[in-house]
Amino acid sequence: MKIRAVIVEDSRLARQELKELLKNQDGVELVGEAENVDLGYELIQKENPDLLFLDINMPEKDGFELLEMLDEVPITVFTTAFDEYAIKSFEYNALDYLLKPVNEKRFGMALNKVRAKMEVHANEGNDKGQRLKANSQIFIKDGESCWLVKIGDISHFEIVGNYTRVFFEDKRPLLYKSLNQVEEKLPIESFFRVNRQQIVNTNFIESVIPWFNGKLKLKMENGEEVEVSRRQSYIFKDRMSL
C-alpha cells in the first residue's frame, strides 16, 4: 500500500529531518513540501495526499488554521518543538504527535499507526472523489475547542445564521460554512436534506413519526426531533421505501 505524504513545516532543517526519516520507511512517497500554511493548502489541494506531517507553530498562520481551511483533512501527524501543544493536538483527534527533534524509533511507530489507519480506510472503500465518504474527516474549530470528526459520526447539520451547527456525540459546535456548501460535499447515500434548515444522517434516525399535512417527524438517536417539510417528506418516503 503506497502512502502519499506531504510536509508543511516552516523550518528547512526540520523538513530535511523528516525527509531523511522517510527514506527508511517502505511504501511512503513524499509528493511535496511547503514552508507555510497558504503554500501547504495549495499543495494539499493539488496532490490530495493520504498523510500530512504538520507543524503547529508557524508564522502568520498556524497548523490548526490550515486544517480549518480544508474540506477534507488527510491523516494528520503533528510535529512541533513545543510539547505544550501535545494535549491540545489530541483534542483535534490527530493520529499522532511528534516532538522535535524526532526520534527515529518514535517516527517508525507513528508510521505504523498511519499504515493501520490506511488499511481501515481501504477496507471501508475510501475512494477519494469530489464528495466525502463516511470515514472522511473534517476539521471544526469553535472558539478554543477543535475537533477532527468523521463524517459518518455526525448525526445532523443545522443552519445558525451564517454558520452551520454540527451534531456529533454530545457536541454542538458551529462550522463556518453555509448548509448549502456542506450539502455539496456530503455522501448522498447517507445524508438527506429534510428542510431548508437541516440535513440528517439517515443512519442516526431512531424512528419516523407521521405528522401534520402529510409531513414527517424524525426522532434521532440523540433524542433530537427533526421535522421534514411536506415536499421532502414525499421524497424521503420514496427514498426509504416507506
TrEMBL record:
PROSITE patterns in the cross-refs: HTH_LYTTR, RESPONSE_REGULATORY
Stretches assigned to the HTH LytTR-type domain: 138-242
Transferase among keywords: no
One Pfam family cited in the UniProt record for this chain: Response_reg
Record's keyword terms, sorted: Phosphoprotein
Response regulatory domain sequence ranges: 4-115
Entry GO MF terms: DNA binding; phosphorelay response regulator activity
Superkingdom in the source lineage: Bacteria
In-chain residues carrying the UniProt-annotated modification 4-aspartylphosphate: 55
Species for this entry: Flagellimonas allohymeniacidonis
Name listed for the protein in its UniProt record: Response regulator transcription factor
SUPFAM superfamilies: CheY-like
Keyword Magnesium: no
Transmembrane residue ranges: none
